[in-house]
Amino acid sequence: MTRQTQTWKWAALMMTALLWTLAGCGSGNTDKGADKGASSAADKGKTASDKGAQSAKGPADGAPGSKSAPLRVMLVPADGGTEQGTRADYEPLFNAITKDTGLHFNIKVGQSYNAVVEAAVGKKIDIAFFGPITYHQARQRGAVELLAVAVSKGKSVYYSGIFVAKESGIGSLTDLKGKSVAFGDVNSTSSFNFPLAMIIDAGLDPVKDLGKVNMTGSHANSLTALAAGKVDAACASVTSYEKAVKGGQIDPQKVVLLATSEPIPYPPLALHKDLPAPLKKTLKDAFNTIHTQPQIKPEMIRGYGGKKVDRYDANYPEAEFDKAMGKLAKVTENLKAELLKKATAQ
User: Of 140, 183, 192, 245, which residue has the fewest beta carbons closer than 10 angstroms?
Assistant: First the structure.
């Protein structure tokens, strides 16, 4: 073998070794690139998945209950008909539902009890807080169905009361004969209808036996009129009385409870019947379980009068409201009309 041939063979071996080394490096870089690419895609996929999971909580933009199309809520003006009183009572609860479900709400207060009924019938609202009577009226007209009722200490009831000044000398319902009485709204369960039934059961004719009748429009207004000495008695829910005492508007040493009604089904939250079935289920499930959600503080679970309650029951029997209406059989439409006529004539 010549020296020239050996040189060419040595060069060929070196070239082969170099090519194998380059191929190995290239292969290693390719694998690392593939790993990096796969890792990047996985990260991107994970991020997209996470974002999808977040956006899945709550409706899509423009859908009922989204930020751009919040569910319309209207509350009966149990404590005055302003955008503060009753609205402030229920905002913590609806904020809790938003936190749990991603649903959004636009809360307003009706200027009268009847205004809320008509808004439901006219399909201008999606959810309403009613008194038992206004709920019955809206349900009878085919507009609503039950959403949920608050539960406190295992019960879903509240009470109507008739209040007097402690030094008035009025000791029984029969003593109201000839006395001036303040009532709330004519469609209010506990500031008008149940007090009337109590007065009738005591043997008095509200139209003939009562003195001046003052229709104030709300529980709070009736209690204020009594505290100011403008009337001898005021009709309101016990819850409204307790709220006024807590707020300093009423001195419990001066204004006292004369008589209490029998238990009344708690003022309900209702759904419009035309809401989509899946949305109804979401809302009912949310109210049924809101008290169990770890991110929800107990003080957010509130009900009528802003009072803290234990939970909500979306399976409360409708029959309980029908029973309550049966107890008001003596409070006829004719009697209401005569009493309102008496009030406006004074």
Answer: 140
Q: Is the distance from CB of 267 to CB of 158 less than 8 angstroms?
A: yes
pLDDT classification of 305: cutoffs 50, 70, 90: confident
Tell me: do 233 and 201 sit in the same domain.
Answer: yes
Nearest to 232 by CA among 159, 170, 161, 160: 170
Helices and strands (H and E) in the chain: how many? 11, 13
Q: Distance (Å, rounded) from C-alpha 241 to C-alpha 6?
A: 114
pLDDT at 346: 79
Residue 13 falls inside a structural domain: no
Domain with 104, as residue range(s), is 71-156+266-315
137 shares its domain with 162: no
CATH number at residue 271: 3.40.190.10
pTM of the model: 0.77
Give the Cα separation of 34 and 39 in Å (integer).
Answer: 8
Please, how many CA atoms are within 13 Å of residue 266, restricted to the half-sphere of its CB? Answer: 28
Q: Which two tokens stand for residue 115?
A: 């205004």
The strand pair at 127-129 and 71-75 is best described as parallel
| Integer angstrom CA distances of residue 344 from 216, 264, 319, 341 | 12, 29, 36, 5
Residue indicated by tokens 């009309």: 337
Taking the C-alpha atoms of 66, 67, 69 and 70 in order, what is their torsion angle to the nearest 10 degrees?
90
271 DSSP 8-state letter? E
